[in-house]
Amino acid sequence: MTEPSPDGRNRRRSRPTRRIVVPLTVVSAIVAGTVLSGCGQQRDEDVFTVMNSSTDESYHRWDGDTLKRCSKQLGITIEQQSVPAAQLMTKALRMASSKSLPDVLQLDASEMPTFAEAGGLIPLKDLGLTTTDIPEGIVDFGSFDGKYYGAARTVNTLALFYNKDTLDKAGLKVPTTWAEMQSTAKELTQGKRYGLALSAGGAEDGVFQFTPFMWSNGGDESKLDTPEVAEALDYWKALLKDGSLSKSTVNWTQADVNDQFMAGNAAMMINGPWQVETLNAKKGLNWGIAEIPVPEAGDDSVGPLGGGVLTVPNTGDTEREKTAAKIIGCMAGEQEQITYALNSWMVPANTKAAAVWRTKAPELAALAGQVSTARSRTAKVGAQWSSVSLALQSAFQSALTGTSSEAALKRAQQQVTSGN
Amino acid sequence: MSSTTASAAALPADPQTPTAGVAKKPVDPRSAKRRKSLAQWGFIAPAVIFMALFFGYPLVRNIVMSFQDYSPSTFFTGEAPFNGLDNWNNVFSDGLFGKALWQTILFTVGSLLGQFCIGLALAVFFTRRFPLNGILRSLILLPWLVPMVVSGIVWRRIFDQDTGVLNSFLGTIGLPGDTPWLTSTSMALISVILVNIWIGIPFNMVILYGGLQEVPKELNEAAALDGASAWRTFRSVTLPMLKPVITVVLVLGFMSTVKILDLVLALTDGGPADSTQTLGTLTYQNSFVQMDFGAGAVVGNILILISAVFAVFYLRVNRNEGK
């Protein structure tokens, strides 16, 4: 290579540069190469993946056990991949663009339409799954545009939780109508204790909690500026004005509401069965559960359906998709539904499974009644739900902090219509 | 081999050995130059590739995205049709954008003022020698160490109108104990700013404290001998000496404040009634709640533009200082 230079200085000077230049370039190239090649992932022939948001230890364990039983039954290996709920959707979309989607994807039912609309899901009936013994409301819950994309194992909804001791001491009955709930809540509001707690936070939690009031009153998410929705909102405003609701309601999540109830700061609360595990952990707390009160006696109490659905993402590999459907068939089988429902305090989706569950968890009977009339948030507006939800959040928060319900809802409807 | 001639050609440039290269056959000085610049590029290459990959590419993609109809289906089809200024029009015609922009300005100016003034006061305070100085100084660093989301969650509890520590404390010392910190549309933004000031004080204090160490004590002594008051000395001697550090603190503080997201999400979720929405939360809401990535990109680009203006300003100030 280099000729020895007359004084040796030259060599010392020129060689280090090359010694450094080459490796540096190589390193940069390798880094760039690794980054780019990391995008594509190879699928393993015999290993199937189920992606869900079961990041909690207990849920992860329950799902793991289910998948172990299904692996054995189907003679394949099924792996579980859990991602925090808030990141699941974006993670799945990224996996779609790098063609590395899992075989089964558990989505929150309110997010499923967005994924289905994008062409990301395979209709389950095309893959041989049926909807026998599933009530219509729950089939709708897993459907978008008339096609059934998502099989629910269990569903949940909201109910009225109350502190039995507090109500007994005051000699009050569990309220069943709006008027009763308002007067009961007012009477139970004493000192640091509020009569009722609910979440009106600026996120999906708050909207979820508003829907039973809006729907039981005949209101509709496809048209927000109707007197029915305004009345529901005025009812919330009245509770706040009475002092039965804490002003912090607009800042509370459903978990905060549960904390307040457990701490004795609220005599009743609107919440879901996923809190039962925590409620039972507190000794001396004697709680009961009832359907959410309705505007007039005899009305139906219409709550929101919540929970996840199992879907088959569109990976283009028909054979694998068929196996994925079998995995869903196993996970959402009657026996697995009962096991999962008893673990997680939710209601089985399948009618027969629900009947068995009712005998095993009689204390949650009110929940089963509430589920039978419950509605899916996305059945009417589909993938537009996220815009409706944002507009509604903004509306009830404005109304609770001063604006008139009519004006707030009118603005919300404009927001939805203009697409902003 | 060209390397042979090149290595020899480097010699004439070396004044220490004027004759060595000349004695040999004459070589092209241009090739030496080329070689040298190749070496320079070799050193720069990793940084350039890194920047291009992790900053340039996302930046360009984000700008392009703001002119595209980029929806969830794009992730499957790879198609994102261009839609001209539709996204921009949608964002600007939405009343929420103006509100978020105004609130971002209030938030940034309020936070910077609070952080800087309190940070400077503490920095000056700690230049004096007193017992426990070191321990106190490190205790004040604590907010800096706590992750933003954790601070947010803890402060949300502290601010709770009925059960929060802050209100019950105010109540016991005879002040009104029912301040609606996070639940009133007029108070919420102020509360969020207060938390951000609390978080930002340590950074300001540490950097300004460092700057104060550089100010020669003799100058202060000289000013004192001339009969200047403490305030006068501070204003006319210390502050001008601190100027370069102050610029750094303010510009860096600005850039981390203007894009605030996590703190607001943890404290108020942008509520109540959008009274704490900032450009950061708006980007998040557009992109990851509504899945309207085009609109999200528009707001993101505006944020980048605002930061870029300040970055240029910062570089200019720094260059002038160097002269």
Structure in words:
The complex is a heterodimer of chains A (420) and B (323). Residues 1-17 of chain A have low confidence and may be disordered. In chain A, helix 8 crosses helix 9 (227-242). In chain A, 48% of the residues are buried. With 420 residues, chain A is of the alpha/beta class. Chain A has helices spanning 9-37, 57-74, 85-97, 112-117, 136-141, 164-170, 178-188, 204-216, 227-242, 254-262, 276-281, 318-331, 334-344, 351-360, 365-373, 385-400, 405-418, and strands at 47-52, 77-82, 104-108, 143-144, 147-148, 154-155, 159-163, 194-197, 266-271, 287-290, 308-311, 347-348. Chain A has a four-stranded mixed sheet. Chain B contains 16 helices and no strands. Chain B is flat, with a radius of gyration of 28 Å. With 323 residues, chain B is an all-alpha fold.
Q: Helix and strand layout, with pairings?
A:
The complex is a heterodimer of chains A (420) and B (323).
Chain A: H1 9-37, E1 47-52, H2 57-74, E2 77-82, H3 85-97, E3 104-108, H4 112-117, H5 136-141, E4 143-144, E5 147-148, E6 154-155, E7 159-163, H6 164-170, H7 178-188, E8 194-197, H8 204-216, H9 227-242, H10 254-262, E9 266-271, H11 276-281, E10 287-290, E11 308-311, H12 318-331, H13 334-344, E12 347-348, H14 351-360, H15 365-373, H16 385-400, H17 405-418
Parallel strand pairs in A: 1-2, 1-3, 8-9
Antiparallel strand pairs in A: 3-11, 4-5, 6-12, 7-9, 7-10
Helix pairs in contact in A: 2-12, 2-13, 7-9, 8-9, 13-14, 16-17
Chain B: H1 2-9, H2 20-23, H3 29-65, H4 74-77, H5 86-93, H6 95-127, H7 133-140, H8 142-145, H9 148-159, H10 165-172, H11 188-214, H12 217-225, H13 230-258, H14 262-267, H15 279-289, H16 293-322
